[in-house]
Structures are given as C-alpha cells and as structure tokens.
C-alpha cells in the first residue's frame, strides 16, 4: 500500500466535491503521511479523466456518477468510452409532459437489455426510474454457481412490474450523469450508491488544447472590444461575445470547439486549428455583429478578411444556404441546425427547390417521444 494508492482510493470514493483536495488533506493527511514513512505527502488533484478510467478498469468498482452543469458531458463521456472500443447506450429522460407510466416501462426494458448484454449505459434525467435500480447499483446480487462459472442476478421493480432474477453481465457498467443544479435536491441514498466525480469540458483538454483556448479567447475579446465607443450610450459595454456569436457560452463554446477541431484534424498545426475555429465562430456570428466588429480593437486587415468570409458564407437567405449546403455535402445523413429569425410558416418549398422532400413540424405541439417516432 502506497500513499499514491491511498490518494487514488480517496479521490474515487470521496470525489464529486469542489474542495475535495482540502477536505482530504484535513481529514486524511495523517493517514497519507503514515503510508509515506511518516514523511509529508503533498495531496494533489488527480485528473478527472484518470479517475474515470480507473473506475472503468476496475471490475469490482461501484457504478459511476458524473456531476456536471452541461448536457455536453454526455457526448464527452461517449467519446471516452468509444476510445476504449466500447459502444455505450445513452438514455436521456424525456422532457415531454405526457410521457408517463408507459414511457418509463419502455425505458426500464431498454436498461434491462443493456444489463443482460453487458453494454455500457449512460443515464440522465430519469429520476422516476432510479429507485427501481437500487439493488443493481448496490451490486446486491443473487449468486448462482456451477462448476464452470458464476452468474449474478438482481431484482428490478417498477410499479406493478417486478423481475426478481435479472441477469447481470460481468461487463456491465453504468454512468449516471447528474446536473449540478439538481444535486442539492438529489436523494442521498442515490448519491451514496456511486463513485462521484465532478466534470467539465476543461477536464478533458490537454495542455496544448488549453493554450489554444486561451489564444481563441483573446481573439474573441479583441473582436468584441470596441475602440471607437460612444461615450454617451456606453456602446463598448454593451457589445459582448454573446451579441456577436449566436448561442455563445463562456464555459463551453471555445472549449468544445477546440476539442472537436483538434480531434478531427490530428495532423493540423496550431495556426491551422485556430483558423478553423475562427471560421466556425464566424459562421454563427450575427450580421450586425460583424458590422460592429469593424470598430473593434482587432487589426483592421483581419476584420476585413473575416467580414469578407462572413458575407461569402451564404447568410443571405435560407435558399442561398441550401444551395451551398447541397453543393458541398451529400444531402443524405447531414444533421444541420440553422439559427434563423424566420417563422415556421416560411416557404420551405421554394427554399429547398428540387433538392429533396421535406416535412415541417412545430415541436411545441409534440407531447410524447412516441409522437416523434411516428414522424
């Protein structure tokens, strides 16, 4: 037993808090010192990615809860698992108001299939079902032995339904993603059943990626800081990154962009990565924001270059955008989100012309996931 092993055990079993390092130093400092031949041991934060990998590598570990403030963590966890040649099943709780008892039974059936097949499972926003899985998460198993192997079974129940002998594959792993805004209201017995780690997208960035985020953040600061401010209206105080880039989030946009671009352009150098990131940001800029950026502290030559790029990116109208989209990509299999001020009543037929057939749906009138599956 080494102090490093003890620290790993503490980080895995008492993680998920913001001041984890200070708490472990306060309550377990003497223990670490004892395992270090009574010499001082500096307790440093273990990277979250390393803690998650340690959990996944440990066949006897408790299941894992990842606490985060963003749904994008689900995508990052999926990337982590697929990097390990695992194929996770992701089940997001329905946000539709009419999804009630039948919906939860169908979700429970999907979960049980994953448990039996040994497929990794990522769950979020399924509070109604969590209580049905306590025996599974406790690893409270019925053990059936024969000469060749050992099989494990557990009990799962929801309402009137009960399966007292659900087979549990030895390869099964479950990751529950908890929104940190719901953490204070979470049931303590639920929290106690998991190894817990607090995670953000920054935790998955390496040093090079973090440096690129800093460069990109500096660029976004420059392009949104006006040098010719109106002293009467305080214009310089009202032009922000959120004004220029539609949907901008200070905690995620740049980080996720750097992560995505670097992972998909492994041979690109730093300048090429930054250029691709800037192009992606300009693509979600607002037209009035690009005009206002002419007054920014960014060098005028660069502002003019990005202004030229923007107004050649097909922002004029929906029809113009589809001309560019289907000219560059195979129209099959494309997932595209378009930020627009147009209403649902826009004439999509004239915009799409002869490209493909389409259906228009107003999501506000959809009340269940079943309705979506029938579209």
TrEMBL record:
One GO molecular-function entry: ATP hydrolysis activity
Source taxon at top rank: Eukaryota
Cited InterPro entries: RNF213 (IPR031248)
Annotated protein name in UniProt: Uncharacterized protein
Organism: Rhizophagus irregularis
